[in-house]
């Protein structure tokens, strides 16, 4: 599995340390809550809401440089809209990798 990185954030911040830190702070603050809401919606089989949660998380996946994971999230989001949860475990693994990475920042 690919690993998160700050390459895109570095590119966006263009050397502005304050901006980079703000981006990281926003991700670290929002991601855990978004993850929990997603997990609750999956548990209650509220797949339409879970698709919306995946949509929000998908952007953080992209910002953290996870290109393959982004494609999985994009497909999973569309699948959830149809009630298909086939990629649930793959997405769960992506969430775990991101959670572990954010602890190190």
TrEMBL record:
> Which domain of life does this protein belong to?
Bacteria
Q: Which residues carry this modification: Phosphohistidine?
A: 55
Task: Provide the protein name.
Answer: Hpt domain-containing protein
Which organism's genome codes for this protein? Dokdonia ponticola
Q: Which InterPro entries match?
A: HPT_dom_sf, Sig_transdc_His_kin_Hpt_dom
- Domain called HPt: residue spans: 16-105
Keywords of this entry: Phosphoprotein
